[in-house]
Amino acid sequence: MPGRAEGGASRIRSRVMHFGPHLLLAALEGLVTSAVLALTALGLSLVFGVMRIVNVAHGEFFMLGAVLAWAVSTAISGHPAVGFVAALVIAPSLVGLVAFLAEWLVLRRLNYNPESTIVATIGMLYIIQQLALTFYGPEARPVEPPFSYRILLPWFGYSGYKLSVVAASAILLVITWLVLTRTKIGLIMRATQYDRETAQAFGIPVERVYAGVFAIGAMLAAIAAVLIVPISQAHYLMGQDPLLLSFIVVIIGGLGSLRGTVVAAVLIGLSDGIISMFFSPTLAKIIATLVVAMVLVFRPQGLFGTAPR
Amino acid sequence: MADKNGFFDLSKTTLSRRTALKGIAAGAGLALAPGFVRYSQAQSSAPIRIGFQSHRTGIGAAYGRWYEKTSAAAVKAINDAGGISGRKVELVIEDDGTDPARGAEVVNKFAKQHKTDIVFGTLFSHVVIGSAPAAGENKIPYFVVSEGHHVASTKLNRYVFQPGITDVKSQIQSMAPWIAANAGKKVTQIFPDFAFGYDHRDYLPPALKAQGADVIAQIAIPPTESSFTKYFPQIPAETEVIYHVMVGPAVLTFVKELGEFYGSQRPQLFGFMDSLEAVDINSPGLEFLDGSHFWEGSPRYAQPDDSAAQKAYRAAVGIDDNGAAVGDPKDISTASHMFGCWETLYVVKKAMEDAGYKGPEDRAKLVEATEALKEFAEGPEHPQGPKTFNGKIHQCFGIQNISKVEGGKLKVVHKTKIEDGLYEPEGDYTTQAL
Question: How far is B30 from chain A (nearest CA, A)?
Fold first, then answer.
């Protein structure tokens, strides 16, 4: 090929940073990925755990969250933080409402049949995606971060906002955990997850729990999207990657296990950051997929999942 | 084609009476269906139908929308002035999803179902490369607006043309002297990991070497990547210029993260406008680009020395002085590329009129007439500037703009000459059979 002869240029890769700072940057990037992934995958895991539904449209709820965040933050003038906070409240609520309606209009009518709901959620995926393309358009649009503080390290600069995403996500995960383990709502959800018929026999309105869980699952994805959208813009195709990664995380961590989801998200996020920085992003994806295959073969219930009853 | 077993060869298969009847019934139904108009008697007055392979969805969607706007404006201008050989021009649009496999299907659909006269309008290089064989098989002229070097490399086929936009090899060659003289001698390249990026990967190092500068690192990034910081540690510390060309929806993230990584102590930046097409350069986080330089095919911002033709073109397409849609300052155009649609349609008009084109039976004549074209003068039909055309490699050559980001606008600081971008042809399409 012309030009390649002179090349060798592509082989040149001089050491730019020492190992320590390099690893630090890789870990920081990995943590941001993990944080967003944990929230998104938790939504998917919750829906599967309680409802036994594989929600293929989960990534589109993520995208919808980002697109609505853009809409809200551009509608509100003034300091970017005001728009962002408004987006953080309004966008997930609207996404939750959409999910609630979808549950009521579609999933309930299918009696939560596992096969039918997969097909139905694939349909939702396309409907939401194409509606976004029609009404929002094909552009990637930015949302201004609530603050733009650049942390200056001796070797490189890093976005302060990115670190705050990690913190926000950790707080949200703790809140979700508290809700699930310490509140009555959480108890009802866990009871429904454990045994649907018995829960119903004890007077738990299972259908209402399902609608709520589906909405909460979508809202978690939407919150993750609002957090990430000041870093990577809102775009109508942005739901694909999170969906795929969420599935990977949920399979590794064990469907329905909160702890497993978080551990797997951190594992996948960090290994993605580190492997892709020191080797190549493609290798990171290959390894993640390989881990999924291994888990499916040797521990089908996932690292922290319980074997089906 | 790959029809080794003669599967589609009707003489080798036996048709049952029932199948034949079904086929006839289906054909009759199709002929009676609304919209199916037979123009056989009205050949001379029927519109010329141009199949527009558009990136309506997929990663090229922002480009696709502006390519459609520009083409619609050009078609309107052509029709208002009497059409092509007195016939109206009509665009038939099909979405290719910015996907090569679908692209080939769309070309087949234009040739076999819509029976358009030509196919036109593709941008993304992998789609062009994927669709070109279908155009060759159907013997339908395929006019792309892609800027990749694949057409001029003569590795496609005789039916593929790129007469409205220059190719990457030529662009790089024209700009390398400016980069080496004004930006720096040690260059790190960041480019998308697919066909279009490979043109940059392959042609920049020799072009810079000729100017006494060197590419010291090449970083390929998958086109679907959404976060970029992890690639930046590969940029060597001694880098004087970062040469970036990115495509797709995540371009803004790319530039923002580069800004966060370097802050004010950055190397010089030289970018292809592809990195920011359809993106407002005043978006939050892009302050970092101030003072950096970009290649622009056609300037996004109106320049003080704009020709009357350039002004008329901008008005016809509907973009304001900032390169945004008139009436919506947030809707930024893909000005660096979309002018190619306008100019290509005028080349098609010229070639069809030269060929005395009547209909699909004259497609071979159209190919030859296009190959015979030599130059396009600057003017209302070619508002970006004058161009020459090499019929052997089906590629035009023109001027390039180097613009500086200054006060939130792009100001053209250097224009190259046509000669700067000329190179030895790598082959000759005209030796291929029609």
Answer: 29
Measured distance CA(B395)–CA(B171) in Å, rounded: 12
More confident residue, B158 or A7: B158
Instruction: Please state the pTM of the whole predicted model.
Output: 0.79
CA-based nearest residue in chain B for residue A80:
B284
DSSP H/E element including B65: helix B61-80
**Residue B147 shares a structural domain with residue B259:** no
Percent above pLDDT 70 for chain A:
93
| Claim to verify: residue B264 and residue B411 sit in the same structural domain | yes
**pLDDT for the residue B181:** 94
In a domain, residue B140? The reply is yes
Segment holding B331, helix H or strand E: strand B328-332
- Residue A190 confidence (pLDDT) above 90: no
Mean pLDDT, chain B, integer: 89
Which of B225, B229, B241, B280 to mutate: most A Cβ within 10 Å? B229
CB A45 within 8 A of CB A257: yes
Q: Which of B59, B205, B234 sits opposite A9 (nearest CB)?
A: B205
Do B276 and B385 lie in a common domain?
Answer: no
Q: Which of A1, A4, A6 to mutate to test the interface with B (most CBs of B within 10 A)?
A: A6
Q: CA of A268, closest CA in chain B: separation in Å? A: 15
Q: Of A45-59, B83-97, B302-316, where does mean pLDDT reach its minimum?
A: A45-59
> Is A160 an interface residue toward B (CB < 8 Å)?
no
Q: Is B155 within the bounds of a domain? A: yes
Q: Is residue B149 part of a domain?
A: yes
Q: What is the mean pLDDT of residues A222-228?
A: 96
pLDDT of residue A288: 87
Testing the interface with B: which of A32, A79, A139 to mutate, by most B Cβ within 10 A?
A139
Nearest-CA distance B193 → chain A (Å): 11
Are B202 and B328 contained in the same domain?
Answer: yes
Do B285 and B178 reside in the same domain of the chain? Answer: yes
Spell out which residues of chain A touch residue B279, defining contact as CB-CB under 8 Å: 139-140
Q: What is the pLDDT of residues B248-259, one digit of tens each?
A: 777 788 888 888
Question: B59 to chain A: which residues are within 8 Å by CB?
Answer: 237
Residues B298 and B372 in one domain: no
Phi, psi of B357 (to 5 degrees): -65, 125
Same domain, B408 and B259: yes
Residues 6 or more apart in contact with residue B248 via CB below 8 angstroms = B59, B192, B223, B224
Domain CATH for B128:
3.40.50.2300
pLDDT digits (tens, 9 = 90+) for B103-155: 999 999 999 999 999 999 999 999 999 999 999 999 999 999 999 999 999 99
- Contact partners, residue B241, CB within 8 Å, separation at least 6: B179, B183, B184, B186, B187, B188, B267, B268, B269, B270
